[in-house]
Amino acid sequence: MRPIAALVSAAGLLSAALITPASAQQAPLKIGVLSDFSSVYSDIGGMGNVEATKMAIEDFGGQMFGKPIDMVSADVLNKPDVASTIARKWWETEGVDMIIDLPTSATALAVMELSKQYEKIMIVTDAASSDITGKSCSPYTAHWTYDTYANAHTVGSAIVKNGGDTWFFLTADYVFGHSVERDTGDVVKAAGGKVLGSVKHPLNTADFSSFLLQAQASKAKIIGLANGGGDTINAIKQAGEFGIVAGGQNLAAIVMFISDVHSLGLKLAQGLIITEAYYWDLNDKTRAFGKRFLERVKRMPTMNQAATYSATLHYLKAVQAAGTRDTKTVMAKMRELPVKDAFTDNGVLREDGRMVHSMYLFQVKKPEESKGPWDYYKLLAEVPADQAFRPLKDGGCPLVK
């Protein structure tokens, strides 16, 4: 006798199969946003990603195949099992065509396995592990915004070249933090630097004192923050209270966002070297999108929110150009079409799922250099895609011949 769970799963897959292809083409196209609405990554994605998705749908025209485009959203609570449960329900019974966002690497990797099972498209705009397009790559997943390899190479190499050649890492203890530490450590060592050690901390930590004391005791020139969102903000604030920077050590925020700088304020964040894929004040297109977003959300968009707009719009253009919502056909069209929008002028979706584009190296302005709210960055360099992202042949993606 087959287990009940197996029968239920089989029934779900059968029901999903029964609604395609003819009935699926008749139903409204539906996009699902799986995000963090209540925890450490809510500022960098969250409701801002929902609003960005809505903006893309509106800018596309709001309809596909003569019917309004639908959108649903849910909070994954940064738990892979919760993310999987919601994604399974959406794909099996609610007719969701594409899922976007995924706030952590653990949730992204979990839902990627389901996307293979259901042969459905997902686009990762928040999670950062380079494994998403490396050993864990999928023919149905696109990774849009940034990843730990790109950030490590853009920020890490710049810091080592400027004398920051000994490092100690404060690392969020899950796949994202481990990927940041691994990829940045590789860059430091390749540039002739040394990694003196690291300490792991739980996600969404309130008290960094014991971890910062270990970093301070290491005497490393650079304390690498292999974390993100609220954890990065708390670590920087508490490092200031401990006088770590005043004592001669410097902080390197490998993955940092304009929302983090806004929360910290320029007095605390000034001088930080960071990398981003988007900044609202780069050019006319980024400024136009940033101002529209600001009017709706009352905050400038993070790179993840701008990327969610871009990825949604690109997906819709691909469905329209393909004339179908069939997954493999749409993915092929997404790779064929160039990505040109408010997020990037030079994007290309590769075979391994990595959307490559320019990255930017910024320095956070001093308070007296800022001309007003959200005027936070000085551009140091534009890093071309082929220098920022891991070469296709080096990722270990089984899809790459």
Automatic annotation (TrEMBL):
Species assigned in the record: Bradyrhizobium shewense
Keywords per UniProt: Amino-acid transport, Signal, Transport
Signal sequence bounds: 1-24
Family: Belongs to the leucine-binding protein family.
InterPro entries named among the record's database cross-references: BCAA_transport, Leu-bd, Peripla_BP_I
Keyword Coiled coil: no
Name of protein: Branched-chain amino acid transport system substrate-binding protein
Family matches, as CDD domains: PBP1_SBP-like
Domain Leucine-binding protein: 28-365
Any one GO BP annotation for this protein: amino acid transport
Superkingdom of origin organism: Bacteria
